[in-house]
Amino acid sequence: MLVPISSLALFFTIIFSLQLSTTCLAESSTVIAWKKLYKRPSAIPQPEYNKSTPERIQLGKMLFFDPRLSGSNWISCATCHNPGLSWGDGLAKGFGHGMKQLSRRTPTLLNLAWGELMFWDGRASSLEEQALGPLQNENEMNAPHADMQKKLTVQQYYKPYFDKAYPSEGMNEDTLTKAIATFERSIISSASPFDRWINGTQNAISKEAKHGFEIFNGKGKCSSCHTGWRFTDDGFHDIGIADSDIGRGSILPDIPALKFAFKTPTLRNIDHRAPYMHNGSEFDLDDVIDLYNRGGRVRRETVAEQIRPLELNQNEKDDLISFLKTLTSKDKEIAAPMLPR
Ligand code: HEC
Ligand code: HEC
Fold first, then answer.
1. 131 within 8 A of 181, measured Cβ to Cβ
2. Is-contact 309 296, C-beta < 8 A?
3. Which residue of 103, 106, 239 sits with most ligand 2 atoms within 8 Å of its CB, as the best mutation to test the pocket?
4. Cα of 107 to ligand 2 centre, how many Å?
5. For residue 199, what are the CA distances in angstroms to 34, 39, 51, 226, 331?
6. Which of the listed residues 81, 226, 292 should we mutate to test ligand 2's pocket, taking the one with most ligand atoms within 8 A of CB?
7. Relative to the alpha carbon of 263, which ligand is closest?
8. What Å distances lie between residue 104 and 94, 161, 232, 244, CA to CA?
């Protein structure tokens, strides 16, 4: 049977455009879902009892950088949470009072205003509650409660700042931790190439990075835990790291599944924070991807079900890393403040 060329052409045009429109539709609904899921929030959350003011941020920043709060007068929060090292210390495990090595890696402080539980094992429930931990810990800043009251009394030069920041509350441990927490809530990563792409600038990230993002949400199963604009579910999981530290398991020993579980870290500015994991056991991002591709370093009952060999080829691994790098923003440099004297 002879079919006229024109009707064949018409047939293929219809099939082709049908296909085209379904792929476009499929793509756009995924992109719409992604836009919703990964969109940056417009306001910073703040607790009713400790609203942010410029005076509180300024006071908190001075306290954060002040080594005189420590038992040795030598260590400040910024010693370990260094803004130049993405608010970490660049070490697998940092050093505290008396050069004692700590048992876990120093985490970043980026975007914690949105965080739910603090520490790798979630043992503090707010930034206010968290701040007393390192101050009093004998291995970190070693300034117990009584010492801190004394230090604040001796350091009268802080008084005018407390009077302005917390006029009716006075200068005490409570307002000290509130001020530090307010400063911490101001530590936010700015928009990165990924955000520009999610907002519609097609060429803000490379073809490889876009493919990497598909793997992140698909074959890699990464987004089942690293989700939302901060790329964390604020949950606790065992991802098969070889270590005897049981993490969240020591806080909630009655829940067997939490043995070896640690908080899912944010992936914002992630390429500035090697080495990785709660114990700094992964040297760089290649190693992290290798860990996931093997389905963890160890097998045990508690390892999350998503942690299974992924069978990613070299291209897919490279593209995943290209995507991770699009989460890095150029943030304003933070200079250490002048301390009151
Ligand atoms: C000697 C190093 C060191 C000093 C000094 C230090 N930290 Fe930390 N910080 C750490 C380590 C290590 C952890 C993780 C500990 C853990 O999870 O068990 C941590 C955890 C945190 C967390 C939790 C972050 C998260 O994602 O859960 C916050 C917030 C924090 N520190 C703020 C501070 C503040 C505020 C100060 C000063 C008052 C301070 N740190 C002083 C090393 C330090
Ligand atoms: C089951 C939940 C889960 C899945 C799935 C998952 N992660 Fe993680 N990720 C975590 C947890 C929890 C940690 C911290 C573990 C620890 O330190 O013990 C982590 C750590 C990381 C780190 C290191 C962050 C840091 O600051 O140390 C990177 C990078 C990372 N994951 C990327 C990925 C990528 C890429 C994928 C997909 C291939 C992925 N994750 C899949 C939960 C998950």
1. yes
2. no
3. 239
4. 13
5. 10, 8, 30, 20, 19
6. 226
7. 2
8. 8, 34, 19, 12
Phi, psi for 250 (deg, rounded to 5): -80, -20
Closest ligand to the CA of 281: 2
Which is more confidently placed, 68 or 10? Answer: 68
Reply yes or no on whether the pLDDT at 275 is more than 70.
Answer: yes
Confidence class of residue 328 from pLDDT cuts 50, 70 and 90?
very high
Q: What single-letter amino acid sits at 151?
A: K
Give pLDDT tens digits for 216-267.
999 999 999 999 999 999 999 999 999 999 999 999 999 999 999 999 999 9
Mean pLDDT of the chain: 91
Q: Which atom of ligand 2 is nearest to the CA of 324?
A: 35
Pocket of ligand 1 (CB under 6 A): 75, 77, 79-81, 94, 96, 102, 104, 106-107, 109, 112, 115, 118-121, 127, 130-131, 134-135, 140-141, 180, 184
What does the pLDDT look like over 133-152, one tens digit per residue? 899 999 999 998 888 888 88
